[in-house]
Each structure stands twice: as structure tokens, then as C-alpha cells.
UniProtKB/TrEMBL annotation, chain B:
Coiled-coil parts of chain: none
Name recorded for this polypeptide: Molybdopterin converting factor small subunit
Origin superkingdom: Bacteria
Record-linked InterPro entries: Beta-grasp_dom_sf (IPR012675), Mopterin_synth/thiamin_S_b (IPR016155), Sulfur_Carrier/Prot_Modifier (IPR052045), ThiS/MoaD-like (IPR003749)
Length: 147, 90
């Protein structure tokens, strides 16, 4: 069940974007935080982080608010952008996709980034950050390269 | 005039890669049946039993159809239907 790191798969993410995602996860702890990094279509490089409302406001579930998600879609469509990273936090478990995460994963081009705040909560301290590709229910972990 | 249906990346395998297809129907249900006749397989990804699958969000002219009748939502000429995969998890 433990995923193999497949050679060549990598998420390249800017330090400022990753810091923003971790800050979001800490702020919303113990609820799960969620959002995206969007970038030019086909570039596989994020240009901005968009925090999304967790409509479930839950420590164990997240769901993008459908109205906010549509606004995001419109903005991306107008700018010829796409979702490069879908991120969310786990607040009591490891940064590995849950069964629910896998069943919902429906952005074939996206990197699924998980942040676990279970160790430090809202405080400064260690956080676990891992990234995956999820295609047709198959999870493949990938390297996270920060630049 | 037909209704335009915007197709998300994950479902474009059913539309030959097209980002949008057109169809006809007075309700969302009729529209999906009409589109299914040319793009078989799509309906099963959108509909489960008598309702929409929880994995997808469907909007008619920017309104989430969960609040406007679901599959019975009424359609008019030149409406735009957007299908987005729900982004959710645990």
C-alpha cells in the first residue's frame, strides 16, 4: 500500500507558494484547509495560490464551496490557466491521501499536495508536506522540489 | 438554439477532447440524454439513479443546479451548462 516514488515525477513549487499553503493549513487547524495553485495551462508551474473555503468546515472532510469553485473556473478560463496543484491539510493524520481523497481526485493534470499539521497544530513547528499524482484511483507519490 | 455544455478535462475522453459540446433539452435530464446519444458514457459519469452524482457540480448560467431542481432544472435556448468535478476529500 505504501506508494513508490516514481522516478521522474516531481512537483516544482515556489518557496513563497509553499509557505502560503502551510500558513493557511496552520490558520485553519484543527479544521482542514484547502485550495489550489493555478498556473498557465500546460505549463505545470504555479503562478499564484488561491485559498478556497472549506464548505464542510470539518477536521475530517473538505469540499470546495461550489459557487466559489465556479468563480475560480471562470477566472482561470479567462486567463487560460488551469489548476496545477490541489492542496489540503490533514490535521490528525499523516499527509497521505485518504480513501475519500482518492475517490474524488478528478484533475488529471494536477499535483495533489497534502500538508499534515498534526504535530504542531497552529504553532510554528514541523509540518509534513507530500505530493502525489492520483489517476483512476492509483496514487503515486512524487518528489517535492522547492525553488 | 442549442445549449452549450462545458466539459471538464477528466470527461473529455467522452467528447473526443472537446472542451464544449452542444445539445438540446427542456430540462437538464433531457439535455444529458441528448448529449449521451452522441457521447456515450458521459451520462454515467454525471447521473446516479434519479440524481446527479455527488462527485460533480453542474451549473446552469452560473447557478448550482442542486438549488434549482437538479436534473429537473429547466433550460432555455442559449443557456450555458458548466460541469466541474467536485473538489473534495477527507
Amino acid at each position: 500500500m505504501f506508494p513508490r516514488l516514481r522516478f521522474g515525477l516531481v512537483l516544482t513549487i515556489e518557496r513563497a507558494h509553499l509557505d502560503e499553503i502551510i500558513a493557511h493549513a496552520r490558520e485553519d487547524h484543527p479544521d482542514e484547509a484547502c485550495g489550489v495553485v493555478v498556473g498557465a495551462a500546460g505549463s505545470d508551474r504555479g503562478s499564484r495560490v488561491v485559498r478556497m473555503i472549506n464548505a464542510d468546515r470539518s477536521p475530517t472532510f473538505f469540499r470546495f464551496d461550489p459557487a466559489e469553485q465556479l468563480r475560480l473556473y471562470r477566472a482561470m478560463d479567462d486567463a487560460d490557466e488551469e489548476i496545477v496543484v490541489v492542496y489540503h491539510s490533514h490535521t490528525a493524520t499523516e499527509a497521505y491521501p485518504s480513501r475519500t481523497d482518492i475517490s474524488y481526485a478528478a484533475e488529471p493534470q494536477a499535483h495533489y499536495l497534502l500538508v499534515s499539521t498534526r504535530e504542531s497544530g497552529q504553532q510554528e513547528g514541523p509540518v509534513e508536506v507530500r505530493s502525489y499524482r492520483i489517476l483512476d484511483g492509483v496514487v503515486t507519490e512524487e518528489e517535492v522540489r522547492v525553488d | 438554439m442549442p445549449v452549450e455544455v462545458r466539459i471538464p478535462t477528466i470527461l473529455r475522453t467522452y467528447t473526443g477532447g472537446e472542451k464544449a459540446v452542444s445539445g438540446n433539452g427542456e430540462t437538464l435530464k433531457q439535455l444529458i440524454d441528448d448529449v449521451e446519444s452522441r457521447h456515450p458514457g458521459l451520462k454515467d459519469r454525471l447521473v446516479e439513479g434519479d440524481g446527479l452524482r455527488r462527485f460533480v457540480n453542474v451549473y446552469v448560467n452560473d447557478e448550482d443546479v442542486r438549488f434549482s431542481g437538479g436534473l429537473d432544472a429547466a433550460l432555455s435556448d442559449d443557456d450555458v451548462v458548466v460541469v466541474l468535478p467536485a473538489v473534495a476529500g477527507g
